[in-house]
Amino acid sequence: MIELNYDNLFTGQLFSSLIVILVLSIVFIIIGKKVEKLDPHETPKGFVFLCITIVEIFINFVKENLPGKRLQVFGPYLFSIIVFLGIGNTISLFGLAPPFSNLGMAMTLSVMTFFLLQFAEFKFQGVKAKFSNLLGAWKPLFILLLPMNIISEFSKPTTMGLRLFVNLFSGTIISIMVYSALNFFFGVIAGIALHGVFDIFFGLIQAFVFFMLSLINISMASSTEAS
Question: pTM of this prediction?
Fold first, then answer.
């Protein structure tokens, strides 16, 4: 008989995720209120100007792969995950556990990506094109191609989540080892300095990799040329 233990469900990674979500929600709401009150004839200043600049850079970077309506549909999701991953993956600088160093958290993001890709294909390619792609290019072999294509549908987001988890987990282990070695040989300051460099390097790189994979897969899934 399988028994479920609920004592350890609230892990450090889940706590970190809730903290990041709470902080980002508050910041986004405040920025949104400030943007609504902006005078269109005046140049924004300070933190609001910085946020607007970041959003414009993001839009210019993404719109080549997701032009027109596709940018409006998927842009908010992509912007949310790059910000969430960027902060979540570097939150260990503040003594908190990176959310996606937990396999369950990483695979949760994979599930979200899977459903988003299915939505993109059905909305922009149509139901007929979607099932035609599942059957394969050569329909007489659909009995062989259909199972393989179904596995491929699940493998793309799954490998993205596994890659995120493994790279962050291994990066955390390496940074701890390096931190411990430097702390032992060169003192606390050197250890802490390089520990911070490793946290930022591994965290931001993996956030960008997951973002780019999501962008490419969503662009391919929502492309009408695929039908």
Answer: 0.74
